[in-house]
Amino acid sequence: MTGLPLSMILTTFGVFLPPFYVTLGVSFAAVGAAVGIVRLFDVFIDPVVGMAMDQTRTPIGRYRPWLLCGAPILMFGLYKLFLPDGPVDQTYLITWLLFAYVGNSILTLGVAAWGANVAAAYHERARVYGYTQGMAVIGITVLLLLGLITHGRIQPGKADSMGSIGLIMIIAVPIAVLFTTLFTPERKLSGITKTKFSFADYAVALKRPSMLRLIAADFVLTLGAGATGPIFLYFFHDAKGFSRGVTSTLLVFYIGAGLVGAPFWSWVAQKVSKHRAVQLGCVAYAACQTVLMAIPAKLYMPTALGMFAVGFSASAFIPLVRSMVADISDEVRLDTGKDLSSVLYAMVTTTMKVGLAISVTIIFPILQFVGYDGHEGAVNTPEAIRGLEMCYLFAPIILVFLGGATLFGYGLDAKRHGEIRAQLEAREVAAAEESLVGPIGSPAAAE
């Protein structure tokens, strides 16, 4: 349930917030630098939160306290970002982005690690993260259809609607967190070593070739698919000739494709393994992105179908990669006796954030360099629009192909994970029996 507002926030931060601050008077270069600076700090936030989360033991569970703590932090950051009460500059954007990202990191890590705890089996995890992606799609679709729902009074992408969008997300966060904490079960793990965690635990995970490949794939896939987000409104408005209102509805097709795509790729993963399914998604993404670029301007339905195809392909990436992290956490737990699931998820959430930040940090200065004007109502030269088109086409295709290539040699498939789960379950049964009868020779056993 928490994935619903988190997906709205992720989309708004990636697609609508950077252009909003350009409209408020902050330059392309300044917005790009602000996002990059905040993400640089954010790289250190996730590891610290992940280690603290893995050490948490409370009467209400490991993850509930973190969600309840992160929600108000995120809400206040959203308020300052979307409802500024005066002039804004780069410093203002950096300050409140950092505040919001702290709360967002806590909730994102908590939800991801909790999902790994709830689902234990290889294919079950693919389904669970597929359902989570489905909730994310619902949240984003509601956001993008606000223009239709409110008869144009709240329009994503318009500066005067951003305050209302911020309030909607502020209200949605506590409702979703409360629902999750009240109704989501948490499995208690047996046979876990009670030791302190440190940054050395990251080295333990990074020594595994499977985790290194997954981190590299997640980073490049995020950078590739995410490169289109910050310039989405600009591209479809100026290069494809659609109004801003129509442009937002096109994004619905991209996001909505995940409702069909996520279960489909989960099914493919059951047939060919998760990493092969991701690679197939990479090939499909590149082909569909190329076709989308070739569609003539102002043709709504062909463009909408192209967006659906691209979104369908991209929906393989996040849920399957998150599911693969959960599999690696089982492998680490078998070998070390430590549950490092939050630490491992901190790695991939960090790579995702860095990838999204780099896309803004690099592309926005390029737009400024080619002379593109991002203010509402601005008229751009053909050369500036051509530069915009090149940014939208080549970077995503090249990077997504590279992301798929990093998964060659990945060895943690369904067969290997089944062996790991069998050994873990045997260990947990033995630990449970020992806690009841005591070890051989102990007073509890003698009784």
TrEMBL record:
Entry keyword set: Membrane, Transmembrane, Transmembrane helix
Entry similarity comment: Belongs to the sodium:galactoside symporter (TC 2.A.2) family.
Entry protein name: MFS transporter
Assigned GO CC terms: plasma membrane
GO process terms (BP): carbohydrate transport
Keyword Lipid metabolism: no
Any Pfam family the entry gives: MFS_2
Annotated source species: Phenylobacterium hankyongense
TM spans (from-to): 20-42, 63-82, 94-116, 128-149, 161-184, 214-236, 242-265, 277-297, 303-321, 342-372, 392-412
Gene Ontology MF annotations: symporter activity
